[in-house]
User: What shape does this take?
Amino acid sequence: MKSIAALQAIVTATPIDDEPTNAELDAVEMEMPLILAEIDLLDAEIMTLDRPATELDERRVRRARHRVLDERRNLTNRAGLTQSGGAA
Assistant: This one.
């Protein structure tokens, strides 16, 4: 019977680097306005779950949806500029 003790050291010898890279951090920073807009939309929708939605609630949700769409558009445009080299 083969012993796996020798193989164990090979498997666990390499440390795992769980820190995000600078590129990953930059990507998160670029997406942060969209993330915050989606959080605002979620907050607006949560407020209407336990009671009937008033006109003000409907406006709040509508504005939050529009902000999410605006931020998605902005993120797409920024990503397009980065991929094309920034030439407009």
